[in-house]
Specification:
The chain is 57% helix and 0% strand. It is an all-alpha fold and 174 residues long. It has a single domain (19-167), classed as dinb family like domain (Four Helix Bundle (Hemerythrin (Met), subunit A), Up-down Bundle), CATH 1.20.120.450. Helix 3 (54-73) runs antiparallel to helix 4 (90-96), helix 3 runs parallel beside helix 5 and helix 3 packs antiparallel against helix 6 (143-167). The radius of gyration is 16 Å and the shape is globular. It starts with 14 loop residues before the first helix and ends in a 7-residue tail after the last helix.
Amino acid sequence: MSPGEFHADLQPPTERVGLTERLDEERRAIVAQASDLSLDELHARPLTATNLSVGRIVKHLAYAEDRWFQHKLLGLELPQPWRSINAAEAHDWSFQSADENTKADILALYELACMRSRAATEACASMDTLAAYPSFDKKPVNLRWLLAHMIDETAHHSGHIDLIRDALGRPPVR
């Protein structure tokens, strides 16, 4: 399939299939948007109003995948490299530490986190499966909410990458 070709079923047979396919479309877009950049472009921060780079966004999304699916949903300890970071600092570290990483390392970290998230989703009996830990100091979210949230989070950051690519003179990739 070509990079711009839509992969998800336009009439998914179930809510679960629809949400997981949609999330995977957003994940593929993130990888495609980073894959054709040079290391300098990956780490460039061309937008003066923000400190974001494509590399920083992709590494942060790897953290978000692991935080939500491994830690919150399954109740597991965060995998490396997040486990070694103070929990209060992990969010900012997920962005800033990307400057020290190669493109291959960032993409591998993201793809591994996405693979773990898919496995976590498959391990849930239903869309009503509740997360092991509460969120927002309230109550646990269910798998349905989590998938919708990660679609939103990933798409939100994909839009940031579009703007950064535009500022770098690189067209958006889907």
